[in-house]
TrEMBL record:
<dbReference type="InterPro" id="IPR006680">
    <property type="entry name" value="Amidohydro-rel"/>
</dbReference>
<dbReference type="GO" id="GO:0005737">
    <property type="term" value="C:cytoplasm"/>
</dbReference>
<keyword id="KW-0456">Lyase</keyword>
<feature type="domain" description="Amidohydrolase-related">
    <location>
        <begin position="21"/>
        <end position="291"/>
    </location>
</feature>
<dbReference type="Pfam" id="PF04909">
    <property type="entry name" value="Amidohydro_2"/>
</dbReference>
<dbReference type="GO" id="GO:0016787">
    <property type="term" value="F:hydrolase activity"/>
</dbReference>
<dbReference type="InterPro" id="IPR032466">
    <property type="entry name" value="Metal_Hydrolase"/>
</dbReference>
<dbReference type="GO" id="GO:0016831">
    <property type="term" value="F:carboxy-lyase activity"/>
</dbReference>
<dbReference type="InterPro" id="IPR032465">
    <property type="entry name" value="ACMSD"/>
</dbReference>
<protein>
    <submittedName>
        <fullName>Amidohydrolase</fullName>
    </submittedName>
</protein>
<keyword id="KW-0378">Hydrolase</keyword>
<dbReference type="GO" id="GO:0019748">
    <property type="term" value="P:secondary metabolic process"/>
</dbReference>
Amino acid sequence: MSDETDRIAAFRRRLGLPAIVDVHTHFMPEPVLRKVWAYFDAAGPLVARPWPIAYRDDEQVRLKTLRGFGVRAFSSLVYPHKPDMAAWLNQWTAEFAARTPDCLHTATFYPEPGAADYVRTALAAGARIFKVHIQVGGFDPGGELLTEVWGQLSDAEVPVVVHCGSSPVAGEFTGPGPMAALLQRFPRLRLIIAHLGAPEYSEFLDLTERHDGVHLDTTMNFTDFFEDASPFPITEYRRLRDLGGRILFGSDFPNIPYPYTHALEALERLNLGDDWLRGVCHDNATRLLDLP
């Protein structure tokens, strides 16, 4: 671990980065996290290949690892796959944020009666970022049960990390279409499209260009592991550079099958410039999330 810590420290020195902001990390109730890890171990349908968890450690060890990497702010992304989970998950993340000051208070929701109520409760309690997994949840983000939820989030200007791309397995409601329709109704939403929208990269870049509130996170993108399955088109590097102010670093820590440093070095080898990389790894998220 010391070698990895040293390499990330050297990366930060090269860029003059005071720290790293990681918008896509997972901290969950222990029983839920164990089930997630078991799913990866079994190479479930959304994995479909060997996926060794690189940071399979106790919670306090994982926190110490992130802090050792110089990560000053991160998220505890949770997501329900069925009704009657989200409110309980939100209670846990609120408690986790209270005891973990460098973790952004995170929340989630699911299309179900009462969703607007528990989202209102989470916002009142200080939630700074939400997570929705369209693929795992298998729901239409534009459904009637979420109308009031999206309205609240739009008014509050709280970002939502959305896994809506069709990688690794397309679902009925994945892809850019449902997000485009949602943004037609709520154009002021602050959405963070996970994994740069893989594999519909070009379409989600289009959406980002059309809507000022749309951002993209780099979670797993450009790593050897991800490029093997969902390569980002070289022809879109120019647009990626031009939209640099709305690209945010995400890692998927701890559920990644390679060292954390590889995600950072994979971005560096794009050669899109130090200013671009500083923005992605720190400045853009600091601005979006209004961090000190």
